[in-house]
Write a structure and sequence with these properties.
- The complex is a heterodimer.
- By secondary structure, chain A is mainly α.
- Chain A has one domain (about 5-235).
- In chain A, about 85% of the residues lie in helices and about 0% in strands.
- In chain A, helix 6 packs antiparallel against helix 9.
- The longest helix of chain A is centred in the N-terminal third of the chain and has 30 residues, at about 50-75.
- By secondary structure, chain B is an alpha/beta fold.
- Chain B is about 35% helix and about 30% strand.
- Chain B has 10 helices and 12 strands.
- Chain B is globular.
- Classes of the chains: A mainly alpha, B alpha/beta.
- Bound molecules: adenosine-5'-diphosphate and magnesium ion.
Chain lengths: ~240, ~280
């Protein structure tokens, strides 16, 4: 079976037309922007890099992951995913086509957030790589959550806590001083996103920078494989 | 004629519920083949298995020369069309945008949509959002989506159950035309008129088993009680298809007393009850 860019673009175009008529998605896309306005005042004396990374992480989690999960679980709930699966479109075409739209939204929202919070003095190359890696991981997690849950409301119940843990875990867990929680947090990609970028900004040596990038790379590969595995599993009804 | 679907000893268990049991039948290229059975008899299960949406427990299934649950299947999926009760549409897109998406996925030009929308009477609603359509209109959009790539086999699971009589007639005509153009049709229904109007051959499905399979005419002849009802000025009268009956009819015609004459084949519904002990509804 050959990959078809035309089919991928057809699905991406459908997502675009669908999303501009979906108030829920537009509302979600606005959330990180509101948040970064609030953050701007709150964290102005704190760590400059957190003031920047936290809104970016929220944009990736809410728009990249949660919106993606909502769109996919809605396709399941309304039985349109079945129609896509019964067409000649391959899993990769369907999943990339659906992700293209979310990627554009997330990047647009992140850019607005950055304009509000300001971009710290940082190596732009590292910044882009870290952001792209985290985006791929979260979109893959969002896609998995969407595929697993049967309805859009199940997505909120199952998915939101997981995503909130990923975003706020690394921010608040250190304050709890519970070693087990910190061990768990030490593995998750958002922790490495923050640690890695902080190391880049403060020039704290290559080690942390590469350790964090390696962690994100492993997450990226595993979460992508997870999505393909779940999607193929959904090919048959139970 | 060449078989396009072959099913041998097919069985399907859901957890511990037996939905299909020892099903065997063949569908020939070019025919309209019907599964007639009441709710819960296994119609949807069969369609899902034939269209690669459901695994089966045992038996052998061949559709277009290959097992539908094996291998990769873009090629297979491009050659079949499917309309089941789990075929959904995008509510926030127009009728046309819904269909244009699938034109691109199947690699067929959008120019064919105009004619198809005409045949199902939806031309005026091409720019209407799907969420504003009635159930029957949605069903016609899904039908167009199932046939826009001119599939070799079209699978229809109770295609007219949500429709009013005028639309049913129109859909039947669309299906006949499609069949004349070469599409083999596999259809399920619980409606005996539909089976009779469309199907070259019909299988009776009850509790996951086939209890009869033949042309509607053969079934009616085979299960009729071979009597004729004649109507005279005194009322209806039943005569046998034998010498005595022939004499009686002859006599009525000669005397000018014969007002009407009907052979008493049972309906498919009557035969279904006779064979399975239960009705179709
Ligand atoms: N997912 C399922 N899990 C368990 N039992 C099922 C499932 N789907 C269908 N069945 C059962 O299998 C039998 C056949 O169902 P189905 O194929 O839907 O019949 P029909 O389409 O003729 O109404 C019914 O008894 C139904 O309850
Ligand atoms: Mg059914």
């Amino acid at each position: 079976m050959t990959f078809s860019l035309n089919r991928l673009l057809a699905i991406a175009g459908k997502e675009w037309k669908d999303s501009v008529r979906n108030p829920q998605i537009l509302l979600m896309a606005g959330m990180p922007i509101v948040f970064s306005i609030l953050m701007k005042g709150q964290l102005s004396e704190g760590n400059a890099i957190d003031r920047f990374t936290v809104p970016v992480m929220i944009a990736i989690a809410v728009v990249g992951a949660f919106v993606q999960a909502l769109m996919i679980s809605e396709e399941k709930e309304k039985n349109t995913l079945r129609a896509l699966m019964l067409s000649p479109a391959s899993p990769v075409e369907v999943l990339l086509g659906k992700s293209a739209m979310t990627t554009v939204y997330t990047i647009a929202v992140m850019v607005v957030c950055m304009l509000i919070t300001g971009i710290p003095a940082i190596n732009i190359g590292y910044l882009i790589i870290y952001i792209l890696f985290l985006l791929v991981i979260f979109m893959a997690l969002g896609t998995s959550i969407g595929l697993i849950s049967r309805t859009a409301s199940e997505t909120s119940i199952v998915g939101l806590p997981i995503l909130l843990f990923f975003v706020f875990g690394p921010i608040f867990a250190p304050g709890l001083k519970v070693s087990f929680v910190m061990d768990v947090i030490g593995f998750i990609p958002s922790y490495h996103f923050m640690e890695g970028l902080s190391a880049v900004v403060h020039d704290e040596g290559r080690e942390q920078i590469w350790l964090s990038l390696g962690n994100l790379l492993v997450w990226m590969v595993l979460s992508t494989l997870l999505v393909l595995f779940i999607y193929r599993g959904k090919r048959f009804d139970k | 004629m060449e078989s396009i679907i072959e099913v041998n000893n097919l069985a399907k268990m859901y957890q511990n519920k037996q939905a299909l049991n020892n099903l065997s039948f063949q569908v020939k290229k070019g025919e309209i083949f019907g599964f007639l059975g009441p709710s819960g008899s296994g119609k949807t299960t069969t369609v899902k298995i034939l269209t690669s949406q459901l695994r089966y427990t045992s038996g052998r299934v061949t559709v277009l020369g290959a097992a539908p649950d094996r291998g990769r299947k873009a090629n297979f999926l491009g050659r079949i069309g499917v309309l089941t009760d789990n075929s959904g549409l995008y509510d926030r897109l127009s009728v046309y945008d819904n269909l244009a998406l699938f034109c691109r996925l199947y690699g067929v030009p959008e120019s064919s949509l105009g004619g198809l929308l005409d045949t199902v009477n939806l031309s005026a609603d091409r720019n209407t959002l799907v969420q504003q359509l009635s159930k029957g209109m949605k069903q016609r959009v899904t039908l167009v989506r199932a046939i826009l790539h001119r599939p070799e086999i079209l699978f229809l699971d109770e295609p007219t159950s949500a429709l009013d009589p005028v639309n049913v007639l129109q859909i039947h005509e669309t299906l006949r035309q499609l069949n004349r153009d070469g599409t083999t049709i596999f259809l399920t229904t619980h409606n005996m008129q539909e089976a009779e109007a469309l199907c070259g051959r019909v299988a009776f499905l009850n509790n996951g088993e086939i209890s009869a399979l033949d042309t509607p005419l053969q079934l009616r002849l085979q299960h009729g009680d071979k009597t004729i009802t004649v109507t005279t000025p005194k009322g209806p009268e039943i005569v046998g298809q034998d010498a005595a009956g022939a004499n009686r009819i002859n006599e009525l015609i000669r005397s000018g007393a014969l007002l009407a004459i009907h052979s008493n084949e049972p309906t498919l519904g009557d035969i279904f009850v006779k064979l399975t002990g239960r009705g179709l509804e």
